[in-house]
Specification:
The protein has three helices and 17 strands. By secondary structure, it is an alpha+beta fold. Among the domains are: 65 residues, Hormone Receptor, Insulin-like Growth Factor Receptor 1, Chain A domain 2, CATH 2.10.220.10; 40 residues, Hormone Receptor, Insulin-like Growth Factor Receptor 1, Chain A, domain 2 (Hormone Receptor, Insulin-like Growth Factor Receptor 1, Chain A domain 2), CATH 2.10.220; 51 residues, TSP-1 type 1 repeat (Single Sheet). The strands form eight sheets. A three-stranded antiparallel β-sheet has the order 1-2-3, with no helix packed on it. One of its GO terms (molecular function) is heparin binding.
Amino acid sequence: VHPNVSQGCQGGCATCSDYNGCLSCKPRLFFVLERIGMKQIGVCLSSCPSGYYGTRYPDINKCAKCKADCDTCFTRNFCTKCKSGFYLYSGKCLEKCPDGLEANNHTMECTSIVHCETSEWSPWSPCMKKGKTCGFKRGNEVRVREIVQHPSARGNPCPATSESRKCIVQRKRCQKEGKGKKNREEKRKKSNKDESKETRQESKGRAARRQNREQRENNNKTQPKKRKAPNKEQDLAPDDTAH
C-alpha cells in the first residue's frame, strides 16, 4: 500500500488518500469523480447524481456521465430526462419533434397529436319560441352533442356542439298557468262539495226511514186491538127467534 493511501476512510470509501479522496468504494456503492476547483476527488455514493448513470463491474461500480443534452439517463444512449430546450423522444433529446408528433412544453416530451372527438347528435328539441311551445307559428328547434375528447395543441379543433333550425307548428293559444290552476282548484272544490252534499242527503234519507219505521212500531204497540162485531143471528136467544 502506498504511504499516501489509507484504509481507515470515511464516507463509504474502501481506500482513500488525503489528496485524491476515495480511491475505491465499499461493496454496492458507486465511485464518481467530483471536480473541486482545478482538481478532481473521488467520492462513493449509493446512487449516481443527476447527469450520471451507474455501471456495475466485478471490480468496481462507477458513475458515468450522460450525454451533454441529457439531464438524467439510464445508459449513455438512453436519456430519461432532457435539459432545458430539448424534448424527450424514445430516449433521445431533440430540439424539434418529428413529423406527426407535437412538443409538450409541460412534460418536455414529444407526444402524439390528439384530435377532438364528439358524441352523436341528440334528437331535435320541441319547436319553441322565447321558451314557450305555444302562442306562435314559427319557432326554432335545437340539438346538441358533447365533447368526449379535447384536442391537443396541434390537434383538430372541436366543431360546434349545438345546431338550430327554424320550424313551423300549428298555432295554439297558451293556457295561463294561474287561470288553469284556479279552474282546477274550483273544479276540485265543487266536486268535493257535491260529494259531501250527496253524502248528507243519503244520511238524511236513511235517518228519516229509520224514524218512520220506529214510529210505526210504537203505534202498533200502544193502539188497542179492535174487537169483532157479534153475529146477530147467533146471539139471539131461541125464544126471540120463535117469537
